[in-house]
Design a protein that fits this description.
- The protein has helices at 13-27, 45-52, 66-78; strands at residues 2-5, 34-38, 58-61.
- It is an alpha/beta fold.
- α2 (45-52) links the parallel β2 (34-38) and β3.
- It has a 3-stranded parallel beta sheet, sandwiched between helices.
- The protein contains 3 helices and 3 strands, in the order βαβαβα.
- The chain has a single domain (2-78), classed as Response regulator (Rossmann fold, 3-Layer(aba) Sandwich), CATH 3.40.50.
Length: 79
């Protein structure tokens, strides 16, 4: 499982997740769950596109409570 912030120096979290997916396709591996942390809301185009295209599995706000973040991690790991 990967957990990534959306904002990075260099490439952003979307680009990083997209690169992970490209490597998985190249190696013919099953997609690894990715949780993207962001201050962007779910109505932001990048979030909608990333979820739709399977670039990342889930996003959660950086402002979320610790319990909510842990719940999302547990759900992704279980699946």
């Amino acid at each position: 499982m990967f957990i990534s912030d959306f904002v990075h120096s260099g490439i952003d979290g979307y680009e990083m997740c997209n690169a992970i997916r490209a490597i998985e396709r190249h190696l013919k591996r099953k997609p690894t769950p990715i949780l993207l942390l962001t201050l962007l809301g779910n109505k932001h185009n990048v979030i909608q596109e990333g979820l739709r295209d399977g670039i990342f599995n889930r996003y959660i706000s950086l402002n979320s409570a610790k319990d909510e973040i842990l719940k999302n991690i547990e759900e992704l790991v279980e699946n």
